[in-house]
Amino acid sequence: MKRLLKLIWAASFAVAAFCQSAEAQGPGITPEAWGAYKAKFLDASGRIVDDANGNISHSEGQGYGLLLAYLANSPADFEQIWYFTRTELLLRDDGLAAWKWDPTVTPHITDTNNASDGDLLIAYALALAGSTWKKSEYIEAAAKMAQALLSHLVINSGGRTLLLPGASGFDSPDRKDGPIINPSYWVYEAIPVMALLAPSDAWQKLSDDGLALLRAMQFGPRKLPADWVSLHRMPVPAAGFDAEFGYNSLRIPLYLVRAGVSDKALLARLREGMTAEDGVPATIDLTSGKPKTLLPDPGYRIVNDVVACVTNGTKLPESSQRFEPSLYYPSTLHLLGLAFIGEKHPECL
């Protein structure tokens, strides 16, 4: 126990130093924007409601909610979201969060598997909030989740360090074509903080190999990654999933720029590949290269706008600068984009 406490306090100081560095993302969501977001998506119980998906809640949404509450400098809302997360989702024996909570059925947990992106987001937000607001219990919870991720989700396969999407169902023997990855589950800005919470060289390798895979995965005419990829031999879109650059993958460029990745060739390829006519992003059929669903919502468009700002200095259009919540997912991306631009690239506003 004493050794654990020493590690947690060491992690606390390390995360504090990270938060004070130029690399860390500081609070950057206005009270008005956060008020509009939580009025629509934050239930009184502390759950973030995915209103485009049957009003369920999931570990991803709770992680996003915690991160946004931190960026909005709202400790009370953060604690409300964390209470629901720890009492309703952190029920697994391995320290990871069950990913799906459905208000229409009892028991509410309808899938006990975890989702590693949700776990990463939760641990990351807890670490930032614990450091900034001097809450040691947040740091302790973050460190436990980081260690659980390292123990159960970060694997070595074929000479690569990978992030499994879940603890079950994505590697052998569950999948003959495993390991299966989802490139959008790499939350790059969170990985250095995980390395402070649960020290291991594997975290840097995870980041490096994730970026190398993104550069290598150029499927179809538009040369885009797939939402779900088999790495059993060479990278290919995984069987049993649509071969598409879909809603999952749309957030990859935003994750890259928020983490300070400055690979202009990679960012330009992703931006160009995911864009249909008139600059509108879309989900893309990888086989044909044709758009499947046009996504004109400002919350989706801001991903391209943020990339244009970072790579070319282009100012955000008024539609992206103005936040009006629509559906949970694009609204979340919208606030993450605005927070990043406001903190790191105010010249684009």
From TrEMBL:
GO MF annotation terms: cellulase activity
Signal peptide limits: 1-24
Coiled coil (UniProt feature): none
BP terms from Gene Ontology: cellulose catabolic process
Keywords assigned by UniProt, alphabetized: Carbohydrate metabolism, Cellulose degradation, Glycosidase, Hydrolase, Polysaccharide degradation, Signal
Catalytic function, reaction form: Endohydrolysis of (1->4)-beta-D-glucosidic linkages in cellulose, lichenin and cereal beta-D-glucans
Enzyme class: hydrolase
EC number annotated for this UniProt entry: 3.2.1.4
Superkingdom of origin: Bacteria
Database matches in InterPro entries: 6-hairpin_glycosidase_sf, 6hp_glycosidase-like_sf, Glyco_hydro_8
Pfam families (UniProt xref): Glyco_hydro_8
Stated family: Belongs to the glycosyl hydrolase 8 (cellulase D) family.
UniProt name for this protein: cellulase
Protein source organism: Rhizobium grahamii CCGE 502
